[in-house]
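In this supplementary section we document a worked example of the pipeline. Step one takes a protein sequence of length 51 as its only input; no multiple sequence alignment statistics are reported here. Step two produces a three-dimensional model, which step three serialises into structure tokens for compact storage. The input and output of this example are shown verbatim.
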Amino acid sequence: MKRQLVTQKLWKSLQPLLPMPPRRRGKGRPRLDDRSALNGILFALTTGIPW
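The serialised model returned by step three reads:
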């Protein structure tokens, strides 16, 4: 079960406030989409699990 803390309504209001992702140069880990990253941060903060 995937837990979504950022609802569609909330994401619609937050998305315009975020900067555009930079262009990828070279190698490295691919960037995670902003909504998934925000969900992960909020999950850690609301559950109290260690970062």
